[in-house]
């Protein structure tokens, strides 16, 4: 049985409909992926901001201005005066030992 004109038209319309459905599906998937990527970038920016804040707070806590009062109050230590500091020098290496 040979296909008549209306059958060919139906097949072509189904093929075009299938192709257009595939294009719509790909575009929808691309939009969904772009939204996910945008959300991931926003989360990364937020986390980088938090990290920068933590690094700043760590540096502030490690600073001399923050540590000296804590050490003095908790451990009873004091900062050495200039006259109490002794510089130790290393002996010169032997040049003919080997």
Radius of gyration: 37 Å
Please report the total strand number as a whole number: 0
Strand pairing plus helix content: what structural class?
mainly alpha
- Strand content range: under 5%
Alpha carbon gap, first and last residue: 103 Å
Average pLDDT, rounded to a whole number, is 91
- The count of helical stretches stands at 2
Extract low-pLDDT stretches: none
Overall form: rod-shaped
Number of domains: 1
Largest sheet descriptor: none
Order of secondary-structure elements: HH
| Fraction in helix | over 70%
Structure overview:
The structure is a single chain. The chain is mostly helical. It has one domain (about 10-75). Helix content is about 70%, strand content about 0%. It is built from two helices and no strands. It has helices at about 5-60, 65-75. The longest helix is centred in the middle third of the chain and has 58 residues, at about 5-60. The relative contact order is 0.04.
């Amino acid at each position: 049985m040979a296909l008549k004109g209306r059958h060919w038209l139906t097949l072509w319309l189904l093929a075009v409909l299938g192709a257009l459905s595939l294009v719509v599906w790909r575009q929808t998937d691309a939009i969904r992926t772009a939204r996910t990527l945008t959300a991931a970038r926003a989360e990364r920016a937020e986390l980088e901001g938090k990290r920068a804040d933590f690094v700043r707070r760590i540096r502030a806590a490690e600073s001399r201005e923050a540590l000296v009062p804590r050490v003095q109050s908790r451990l009873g230590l004091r900062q050495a005066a200039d006259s109490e500091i002794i510089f130790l020098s290393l002996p010169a290496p032997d040049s003919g030992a080997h």
